[in-house]
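CORE FACILITY INTAKE
Project code: CF-77B
Contact: R.S. (postdoc)
Sample description: multi-component assembly, two entities in total
Requested service: structural model of the whole complex
Turnaround: standard
Below are the sequence entries exactly as provided by the requester. Do not edit them.
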Amino acid sequence: MKDFRYLTDVSTLALDKEICVGCGLCETVCPHGVMRLNGKKAEIIDPDGCMECGACDTNCPVQAVRVTPGVGCAAYIIQTWIRGKENASCGDVNCC
Amino acid sequence: MEPKPQQNECGCDCQPQSDRSNSARLTPFPMAPPVPKPSKKEEDADIPCCGPPAGPKSSPDERPGYILCHFVERFLSTPAGAVPVVKTALDRKDTIGTVLTRIGIGRNDYKVAPGLYGVGAPDADSPVLVTANYKLSFDALRKELSGINAWILVLDTRGINVWCAAGKRNFSTEEVSDRVRGAGLDRVVNHRKLILPQLSAIGVSARAIKKSCGFEALFGPVRAEDLKRFLQNGMKADDFMRRVTFTLKERVELIPVEIAMLWKPAGWILPAAFFLSGIGPGIFSLSRAWNGMLAIGAGLLMGVLSGGVAAPILLPWLPGRAFAVKGAVTGGIFGLILLGLVPALGWAKGAGLFLFILAISAYQSMNFTGSTPFTSPSGVEKEMRRAIPLLAGAVLISALLWVGSAF
């Protein structure tokens, strides 16, 4: 996102160009234009724009793009500290 | 994650007998037998009765045990049964529902029945748009479809919006395939294409959908408002359609729920404030406890307004990348305003209250990261590791100043 930027150098997004088959799906699904198809290979053009939603990871046919997706609200993260990732929830079913 | 119903493995052409979708089981039914017309005499008879004149007769679409949804225009007969055609204009009922949901009332149960719907005059060649069964998502979609003939396949996302449901894997490959089969979509349309909202890509794999039900999954635009252009462009999305935004309007819409969620902490902060304020030399003072609780309550309100309203609105213009910093900036301003309004507190209590507002505001603002479409969980965690100890320290010092001032 051009007009909203968050912390830098934190995203878990990683791309293995060796495996990439150049299908371009990661570019299609990314809501922040982080990935781009350059010739036959994808590339990460804006790593700090990544919000770790996981759309590229889910749709990559060969698992060349990997990211650890998650929920980014403070209440939830505090719960993961206290109760562990498996048992954490922020209480409200509609809250994500 | 909730257990998924077992997926039918028999491929797409076979219609499972499961009763997953009501609409799939609907078969065109003959119109109800004509009700004998009341004789002229009965109709005209002006029998004096109590109350206003009776309303209109029941719609022929009504059936025992079902409620006819107000957003359904008519029913369309298809090879897979009767399909409700929905209105593209939102009415008063929709607006009231939207407002209540936005302030958190009934938000967890604001849904429409999953299954196949239509809009306009859809036929076997019309596109199929897939969406969530959160009514706000459903409304957001249908209100953009005036003048368009299309099918709407509503998934059972447990009343959760597209993006969040995809994150929770309720908007999933399995759910899409199951719903396609359950609705008998292959009998309704000639083509084999689904248009999914782009943000559902977290939860669904386009390739896996094709494998599992034979329908090709295309990712449409992020926003329903771009769907018309997407369809006109021959199902091609440009960069603008592919990017999320976070406009002032989008930020303001999220504020009420953020605030509504803060009633719970107030339930223990206020009693704690009452208790702490009453402590002093000699006996516990009820009047001091009461006044202290009111002051801290006002501080809490200021902190929430600062971090939950001012910070989201001013987000792009506040200094810093970290949300806690942004919230602390507005919290400082709101704290000074409150101290200006209540000048008689004394320095210790004043400083304590100021720190308290700062901490509440910073925390509330940091929690807003969960509602923004651009903060990464890794970033939020990094920010929190530094901010939470500082905020906890600030609250502790604030409590010490508050209690200490009584001695």
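Facility notes:
- Chain A touches chain B at residues 1, 3-8, 10-12, 25, 28-33, 49-55, 58-59, 61, 68-78, 90, 92-96 (CB under 8 Å).
- Chain A has a mean pLDDT of 86.
Invoice: internal transfer
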